[in-house]
Amino acid sequence: MRLLHAKTMELRSFQEDEVPEYAILSHTWHDDEVLFEDLHDMDRASKQAGFRKIRFCCEQALKDDIQFVWVDTCCIDKSSSAELSEAINSMFLWYREAKVCYAYLQDVSALVIGNGRIQSRWFERAWTLQELLAPKSLVFYSSDWNFLGTKDDHLQSAISWATGIEVEDLSGKWLKWVSIAKRMSWAARRKATRGEDIAYSLFGIFDVQMPLLYGEGRRKAFLRLQEEIMKSSNDHTLFAWTKRRGVFNPATATMSILAPDPYCFINERRLEPTKKINPSPPYSMTNIGLRISLPLFYKTGWPLPLSTIVVAALNCHIEGDYFQVAALHLRYVGSNQFLRCTVVDSLYLVRTDFLSNFTTKEIFIRNDYEEVEIIDTHYRRRAFILRDLPPVVNVDGHGTSKIREVYPPEFWLNGANVIQGLWIGDKTQSWHACVDLIIDTEKLPRHICLVLGVDVRRGDRPWEDVPPWDEHNLQFSSWFTAFLDPTETLAELHKRDFSRVRENFNGSCEYEGLKTTLNEASGDRDYVPFMFVMEEWTCVVDFDGSIKPR
Question: DUF8212 domain spans which residues (predicted)?
Fold first, then answer.
């Protein structure tokens, strides 16, 4: 370890067992810092802007009867990659072992403090997070090196407000007992000049060491960090992240089991591992993905894509809530492998009393680095939601309406009133389904056949048709109509050519046409017996197995 003599300002090197008492400086970097090589010419170094805080630090150390100081700008030879790597991997320990740490808030004056708030760039930088938590004694100084307070006195609430770290965690003594998700949330909004430093600055907070690979990028560095963390931890909160930068888009349906950024944990600071008599089985990262044993819930017999979605319960819960556990949505992709799904943009919870319906199984959750856009291939279908099918009321009395048949039958998701078509990414030009609706009144049962479809050639635009039949023989010039013989089955109707859909599609006009047709068929022009709404549908499987359109 290289230290700066506070009186002579000479650099001296010490072996690990020979390091004397020292003070350490915490600050934010600015232009014209004094670097290791600059100290060879003290006359030039003393004229640099960064020299002022080094001088302040040395003077304060001497007042505190400390002979040596450590300053990251000038005590590390950054031209040596080996020395830089050693310093970054040791930095948390160096701050922990210092007799005192001086935090220099260059953009704060002594007059700013007073309303329980501190606003400073120091609270926003990645490296200063460990410099806040590691020191046993941390003293804050203003831009003019005036004493502001310590992290153990009246500044505690202001520091907690500025960092989002609870007062009881500021000492940093019990870091290993703080959940991974909570520690990650502290770094969620912090910034670094180099993207990789977002991960490298967290080494000490998670008590890991790993080589530096500047140039690998922010995301890969953070993924490597998480892989290193799981080697010595079985904390499932590592996988319970939910938030992503940008607008939530369920179309980006799968991603790595590991978070791409600390920001993903911004809402998970209240998560903690669930303590059990029998601890969770160990898990590990393999070349396939994360190998882990989890309780799984799935429903057999559902049509795709629902049969590929499972709920996996994690061994963690929200602080104080012992009746629910966090869970993930996973999509089965074959060979006992799963991908994490973006079904909702919030923490998904499962009641503990429902866990008896889960089956524990060892699975592989793939750690694909790139988010997979599967809206066009696997996960979402264009679907028609039949919103309402109420009793028919007309002048003759009460009646009922119901769906007798849907063709093809595999398109019909019974119980959700949803007709699912082909995958949106299918290469076919269009698809359609036929619905046989019975309007049963006291006067006469009537059949209405709806033909619903999507024309892929025109950007997946939906269309609907009412093929008239029997005595009504209703036709609308703006519609393409197919005549259904009373003896014709839906399967036979489905074979007809419905490709000649009107090119000048107008949703509102077409809906009005459907409304008029249904009124004609029911014999009541003032009542819509069958409210029909088309919209895209994303499958959501609730913890109890229910299906909810979004």
Answer: 220-244
The verdict on 35 and 169 lying in the same domain is yes
Separation of alpha carbons 272 and 278, rounded Å = 17
What size, in residues, is the chain?
550
Taken in order 304, 306, 307, 310, the sign of the CA dihedral is positive
ω before 305 within 30° of 0 (cis)?
yes
Three-state secondary structure call for residue 291? strand
pTM of the model: 0.68
Backbone phi, psi, residue 333, to 5°: -120, 10
Closest C-alpha among 341, 367, 43, 89 to residue 204: 89
Three-state secondary-structure class, residue 130: helix
Q: What gap in Å lies between CA 284 and CA 292, rounded to an integer?
A: 7
Is the preceding omega at residue 467 within 30 degrees of 0, hence cis? no
Domain annotation covers residue 211: no
Beta bridge partners of 332: 338
* 8 A C-beta contact, residue 250 and residue 287: no
User: pLDDT digits over 470-528, tens only?
Assistant: 333 322 222 223 333 444 566 665 665 554 433 333 333 333 444 444 444 434 333 33
Residue 400 CA to its chain's centroid (Å): 45
Range of the domain at 386: 381-534
| 250 in any annotated domain | yes
Q: What confidence tier does 451 reach under pLDDT thresholds 50, 70, 90?
A: confident
Q: What is the dihedral of CA 101, 106, 111, 112, to 10 degrees?
A: -100
